[in-house]
Structure formats: structure tokens, C-alpha cells
Amino acid sequence: MATRSARWHNALKLAMQKEGGMKDVFQLATTDFNNATPHVRCHILRGHIIHPSLPSLPLLLTTTDIRTPKVAQIKSIPSHRVEAHFWIKATNEQFRVSGHAAIYPSPGLKENEGIEGVGEVYDAFRSQGWDWEDERQRQFDNVGAHMRASWCRPVPGSPMDSYSDAEKWPVTVAKPGEEGYDAKNYEEARGNFALVLIDPIEVDYIELGVMPNRRTKFVRQESDDERWKEVILVP
Q: Where are the alpha helices (DSSP H) in 62-214?
């Protein structure tokens, strides 16, 4: 069994370490199956989830409001395929990570609100009793009070009569034990908070910081000996 990390993933982590400021920001693209319309928005990479027995198969973790249109868009595609785009200015490198998305919302919602992760990585976590709800709670409490307040707003994308309507919404949502804690707002925000995980299956890696420029496509393999096939492309 392959025990090394994926080369593209090592390159991404190294590049992000060199990037200052908004280094964790990436673009997440989805498609609406019903009208084939593409949609893209910025996201924050919250972490890299790696099972010890499968170090070359990382899951990329981000979060969302379960009520956002992107959730319906991801669910509309049978494969739940998405693409994450990273541009690292510090190194002039671009990563386009295509993979299958899984969504873990509050367990209090209907069963069909989320998307259960499938495949060997998720199977490995299940075999050890991994609880995604524990991770969801940890991520929710790790974000700032202002960010938590965003999940107390009305449904994202719904019409408003006036910009001033936003003045009625909570500005911050404190955690239990913090000053200003409001149980109702905390539970409402936590109920709308969901994990989004991307299980990569193809990565397009472009190195524009070297001359001549380089471009490599990484394609995930089923073989334990060779997890990622590398194909050199014209940049």
C-alpha cells in the first residue's frame, strides 16, 4: 500500500505556507444539472482531513450554510462533482482540484439534506468510528463570532425589501461561556452550519514560477502501488 503523501498535495500545502494574507481562500465551482449553468464562489479551506492509512488521499474541508443554492447544485449532479481552484500568487502556481463532494449538516435535519461520503477514504474513517458531527461542532466553534452570525440570517439569496433589513440581524454569535452568549442564536446558527468535503480524483497543477513553465495532470488510480498517475501537459 502506498504510504507517501500525494506530490500535488505536498506542493499545494507548501505553496499555501508561502502565501500571506488570504492564503486559505479558494474558488469552488458547481454546476446546476437542471440548466447546465456553472456557479463559482470563494470559500475558506478549513483543513486537510487525512486518514493515517491513506496519506496520499486527502480530503479537502470547507464549510457552508446548508440553505445555500450550492448545496442543491451539488446534489443535482449524480456524481456530486465539484472543482476547487487555488491560485497562489507567492509562487505563481495554480491548482484545479476536481472531485466528489460530501456534505455533513446538522443531524437534526432531514436525512436527505446531506450527502454521505462514499469510497475507501470514508470507509476507512467509518471503520474507526469517526464521527463527522464531532468535526462539525469543532469547526463551528473554531470560526469567529461574526462568521457564526452569518448563519443566523434569512435564507441566503432570498429577496430583501431594503439593505436596512440587515440591521435586524445578529452581528455576532458567541459560544457558550462567552460574553453575550444567546442560546437561541447559537443553536440556529449551528443548525444551518454544514461541512463540505472534497475527495479529489483529478488535479491540474500549473507552475508558472519556473521557466519553462510546467503543467502536470494528476489522475487518481485504484492501485495501491500508484495512487496518482502523472501526465505532463503543455502549459
A: 69-76, 120-127, 132-142, 145-149, 183-192
